[in-house]
Structure formats: C-alpha cells, structure tokens
Amino acid sequence: MSDTHVSVRGEDEPEQLREQFRQLLRYRWLIGGGVGIGLLAGAWLGITGADSYAATTDIVLRAPTSDPFAPTLSSDKAINMGSERQTALSRKVAEGAAQRLGMRADDADRLQHGLQVTNPPQTLVLHFTYTSSDPKEAARRANALTQSYIDLRKQQWEAVRGSMLKSLQDQLDPVAKQNDELSKRIKQLPDGSAADSAYAVQANLLNRITDLRSKITSLKALDMTPGNVIRNATAPTSSDGPGLPLSLGLGGLVGVGLGLLGAWVRLVFDPAPRSAGDVARAVRGPVLGALPRGSAGVLVVGRSDSRVAEEYRSIAFRLAYDERFADRRRLLVVAARGSMEASVAVAVNLAASFAETGKNVLLVEADLRTPSLAERLDVSAASRPRWSRTGEHADGEWPGPGHLVVDAGESGAFGLVPGERVRNVPRALTSARTTRLIAEADDPAAAVVVVAPPVLAYADALALVDRVDGVLIVCDPRTVHRADLVRIRELIVGAGGTVLGAVTHTESRRREAAGSRRGNRRRGSGTSAARPAPPAARTAPDAGADPERDPDADGSTTIALRTVRSGDR
C-alpha cells in the first residue's frame, strides 16, 4: 500500500512541476523585463570592457635565509600570504610606485584603484593585475607596483635585521668588557683557589661571547631578498572585457534568471487562484468544467456542435450524477463578482443540456435589477411543450400561466421565467411566487436552474440558497481572489446551501471591456425612470394576479417575476 502511494506521488511530481512552470509563464512581462534588463547590463559591460586592458606580473615570495637549499626550510610557514597580499595593496606600495613613475604622491589613490592582487591556492605566488585604458600604461604601472612591493618588503626585512643586530651587539659589548677586565685581574692573582674561580667565570663569559657573535654572524649572512619576479608585465594586445557577444549572452541568461525569480515571487504573493486545484480548494468542491477562452455565448448548446457545447454537456452530466443535485434537481448559478455575462451563459446552456436529456427544465432569472434574458434569447409563448401550456393546474404541470419558452434548437426547448425590475428586491425573492417556481423541481422529470446576481455584489443569491440548496460558482481565475471564493463558500454554507462545484472561464480583454460597458449602461438606465411594466404585469384584478404582487407597507405593489401570456405576445 505504501509503495503504491509513493509511486503515485512520484508520478505527480513531474505534473506539478509542469503546472508550476505554466503558472510562471502567466507573468511573461516580468520575465521579459528581466531579460531586457540583463541584455542592457550585458551591452553596457561589453561596451565599457572594450576599452579596458589588463597587464599582469607574478612574484614568488621567499623568506630570508642563509642557505636557500636547506631541506629543513619551510617558507610557507614563515610567510603569511594573506598579510603579504594586503601589503601589496597598501598605500605605501602605491606611493613608492608613484615616485618611480614620476607621478605625484596624490596619485597613489588612482594607482590603487586599478590594482588587483591575488594568490593562487597552495602557492607562494602573488599575481599582480593592473587595468587601464592604455595597454602600455597598464604594463608600466604593473611593473612599477611590483618593484615597489619588492623594495618595501626588502626594507622591512632589513629594518628587522638591523634591529636584531643592534640588540645582540648591545648584549655583546658589556660581556666583552667584563671579560677584558677579568683577564687583567687573573694576571695579578697568585696561583690557588682564587685564580681557579676566576678562570671558571671567564670560561662562562667566553661561551656567552661566542654565542652572541655566532648569532650576529648568522644574521649578517642572511639573504634579505623578499621574492623573485617570474613574469614581467607586457602591453596586452587585446582588451580585458568579455566582448559584446559574450556579454549579451551572459546578460540574457542572468536576465532570464531574474525574470523567473520575479515571476516566482509574484506567483507566491498572487491572491488570484493559480490553477483549478486552487479554485477547488477554495470552494471545497470540484471544478466541473473549464470553458475555452472567449466562449461566453448566451446559447451554444443545440445551436452548433462545438467544443464549448460539449463542455457544457459534460458539466451537465457531472451534475446529473451528483447525488446532492440529483435528489432535488435545483441549481443556483452565481458569479463571484463583476459582470453576469458568464454566469448567465452557463445557466442558459446548462438548462439546454438538461432539456437535451429529456428533462422538463425551467430557467428562472432572479436578476431583478438589470434583467435581460427575454431580450437575448429566442423566446416564444405560442408554441410551447405540453407541460408548459396555459390551463388548469394539474399534477406535473408548471404552476401558474405565462412561462416563456426558449427554443434551444436540436436540444429541444425549456421554460423561462424572465426577471422584472421591482422596487423591493428582497421581498420579491422571498415571496411565495418564487418559492412555488423553485418547487417545480419536485417533479422527478423536472429541473430548475436559477441565475442570480454576483454573490459579493448583492445578497440576492443568499436569499434563494435555502430553497435551491445546490450552488454552482462561475468565476474567472484572473479576476477573482482566493479569499473571495472562500468567503462565497462561507456565505453559501452559512445560508444553508451546498456548493456543488465551480466552472472557470477566461474571457478576452476586449470582451471583458464590452461587457463592462454594457453593465454600466444597464446600471445607468436603472437609475432613471422604471421601464413600463409588460402587459402581464398590468393584469386586471380578476386575472388572478394576486400571486404576482405583494403589497408593500405603504400600500404600493411589488412586481416579483415577470410572466408573459400567449395573448400578450
């Protein structure tokens, strides 16, 4: 069992990597910006490096010794290469080189700026590199700095030796003077114990004098050369820069890395869902379908045999086999925020797909603020199925007269209850008329699809959740945040509903702008005088209009859901 689990995880890892890479490509502008910056930096490096020339010298360091061929001598322990490198880069060396080049002492800083000293690992070699815009000047300054370093180290070693010789000589002079005085005294002493004691003291003094003179001789015999130049600087024949092609290539690679890093950081802090898995985790339900880009047609099923129509049929079949929907056959389709274009298209096409399977479908437009379905669909009130004919109410018939019929082409037809602007939207949505419309799904052969305004824009959908139960969320992952989807799920569950799943779509920028302009026009028209009520809304008292109207507190009436009779069309 564990082996199978490990194998499945191993197979999922490449797919996760591919998905992450696809998500990074969403931020092409960041990657392109990084590449552009890298190319500009590479071009600048290639252009500025074309006028740069580097001359080099090498010095092998050695410690002062009287016998350079002695096998017991270990120069690598006597010389600290880190300290020697810092000495070579010091201002004292730069001042000596400036004097040797005939420059002023103030130019020492400029000499230090172009000098670089390195020490190859496991060697006693100092590598001097001097960079200048003139190849001959670079070689001349490199040699001057190298020689100035050698002279400085030689002076330092000789100063140390002189100090040691002075110290030894200061110790030797008193001992030699004491020995001379003792020799004069011994000549005046008679033979005996006193003379023997004086001879013993003189012997000690002579040993001390011999030891001091031996040290002085050894110091004077030391070779104080600090090192040997093994390569002199010559004028370079080519520039030190990597060249424009190589600089552009390196800049491009670095730019790609920076762009990917920026895209990754943007992806980590992006509040929008990055994949269908993020949407599913946010709503705690499956993603039932992903509509192709620009596929928000009002009615696609039954009009053309296309990929979009098949996607809607697939969503309808997945809902039909979901026990939570199959038990009650009520579906509320809502968007997260923004325009209702996508949610209306999903609701209409799902109604057509259900009708295609033989169900009696009623589509209820619960948008009582900017209704538009009756104008956008091919509706008819004269030719309607048996189950929607006007007449006495009987078992299995739709309650109330006046449902419109939508022609869905080869898929058949389904009923439509279009919305109508009302004064009191919450009262209309919670009226008995709305409850009876949704209750039509109690017939085993019927289904009710309700489309409502976006959840985060209005609370209309929440007023219907307790009667519809099953909710389908339609969202564009590019324009909705994960926190919004989580909040929508919490609102729906808190109102007593169930999230059946989500449908994702991606609209083109042009279509989104057009939809936004249409929505603005509708909202603008809604602020003006109310649209005249259709004939069905202006029924006489004896036409049985009581279920259509609810008296307000001030005595006015509220038109709930518009119905159109066959005689009015």
Automatic annotation (TrEMBL):
The keyword Transmembrane helix applies. The keyword Transmembrane applies. Residues 525-544 have a biased composition (Low complexity). It comes from the Bacteria. InterPro entries: Bact_polysacc_biosynth/exp, P-loop_NTPase. Keywords: Membrane, Transmembrane, Transmembrane helix. Residues 506-515 have a biased composition (Basic and acidic residues). The chain crosses the membrane at residues 27-47. Residues 503-569 are annotated as: Disordered. This is Lipopolysaccharide biosynthesis protein.
